[in-house]
Amino acid sequence: MTHQIAMRISKTILFLAGLVLVSLVLLGATRAIAIETPVMQSADSLAAAAEEIPEADTPAPLSVAQPVSKPQSKPTSPFVVKRVLQIDEPFVHGYYKWDDAGVPDGEIVITVDLKAESMSVFKGGYEIGATVIKFGDALKPTPTGVFPITQKSKDHISNIYDVPMPYMLRLTNDGIAIHAAEVKWGYGTRGCIGVPEEFARRLFEQVKLGDRVIVTNGKMLDMGDPIVAG
Known about the structure:
The protein is an alpha+beta fold. It has 2 domains: about 1-55; about 95-215, L,D-transpeptidase catalytic domain-like (Beta Barrel). It contains 2 helices and 10 strands. It has helices spanning about 1-50, 195-205; strands at about 95-100, 110-115, 120-125, 125-130, 145-150, 150-155, 165-170, 175-180, 195, 210-215. Strands 1-4-3-2-10-5 form a 6-stranded mixed beta sheet, with helices on one face. The N and C termini lie far apart (about 140 Å).
């Protein structure tokens, strides 16, 4: 009898131990699921959040081929023809016209066209003087280009030819200058630009050192044209 009771107690203990073991296994599985579930949800939430980020928030990669904006063009040069003198008389050798009445202050620019045998004086773009000229002969032609006035001499005597050059405005170091001369058809110079004496006097009074003289061979100017060489 005692032996049977002991056997029943042993079976009961084994059964209870089995139940405890099964409970522990189930509890461990449940915890594992409970721990993994938040992690999975977090990953899904991050993926969803990443999909919701607007594309505009992602900086575009730099590209070498991207066009560069061109700089705005500079304002139009103030040295343009704003007025041309009205000349009704025959434009012949020895003739000149000068009219600076009412012309505002401005930089003096002198243009010389060897082909037209003429000179124009602009003040701030307004033509204030025009004359027929004489210029270099075949032995020493007048050079073309842009020349600043480097010297002024009212009663200059040429140290090369020993002749008077009144109201001289030097253009080059080798003797090219603007000066008063007797301007007649068929007469030339050794490269200088000769103008009537009264015109030379008025010009001498107006210009200063550094003012530009633009000498061309066939460059004609009209209203609105830029006063430049070439």
